[in-house]
Fold this sequence. Notes:
By secondary structure, the protein is α/β, with parallel strands linked by helices. The protein has helices spanning 12-19, 22-29, 66-76, 97-104, 122-127, 144-155, 168-172, 203-221, 223-228, 233-252, and strands at 3-9, 33-39, 52-53, 63-64, 83-94, 109-113, 119-120, 131-134.
Amino acid sequence: MPKKFHVVTIFPEMLKTYLGYGILKRAIQKSILSVEIHNLRDYSRDKHKTVDDYPFGGGAGMVMKPDPFFEIVESLWPEKEKRKIVMLSPRGRLFNQDTALGLSREEKDIIFLCGRYEAIDQRVSDHLVDEEISIGDYILTGGELPALVIIDAVARLIPGVLGDFGSTEEESFSWGLLDYPHYTRPEHFQGMSVPDVLLSGNHSEINRWRKKQAIKTTLEKRPELLDKYLLSDKDRELLEEIKEDSNELDRSN
Ligand code: 4FV
């Protein structure tokens, strides 16, 4: 059974474009993934297919009307137990790789409600939405990009999607840490070379170097992630080495 996403938007073409390329396009062609896009305007009952109106209480901008959202959900996904309705909004739970993993294991169809204008009428969130998700603390012009970000991050965790484009197994090697440095040909470029260990063919040494680099990079750039990361004894050994290396560096400077 393909992993089923639905996206409710007033700009369907915007999504079709992004989904028509690369790994996502291939996963959809191989029916590992299905993304159905629905135009909210088709569920607006007035002859002008209006989906927004002036805010009660005044104020700038327009608010999206509740009725087209209730109309599409009640007509396409009446069974609550078979659907998970996700509204993209800056008020939502902050999206991260763990959220992506959770959604990749979700059995229900995942339905994204994409807002435009100032906001969506609060009654949609109060009575229809199962979860609000934010992709970050900034304000966008619409929920379409957040929906694509989530579909992209979740899709690559579905077995068979990445195929030989990389593997999430390998990724889980340093799940929760920042990635280690990657190199490819040419070996020598403008006087810049590649760390010898990567040319050694010694895979346990290569894995050790990669894990050390992942811990070092995380310590330098996102130390708060390291606090959350469960260090093994071997990792603790690498962390000590990293600290010694930097003390040596300080001493030598
Ligand atoms: C957003 C975010 C976001 C708010 C009003 C769309 C905009 C406009 N969604 N993560 N950050 N949404 O900024 O998810 O309708």
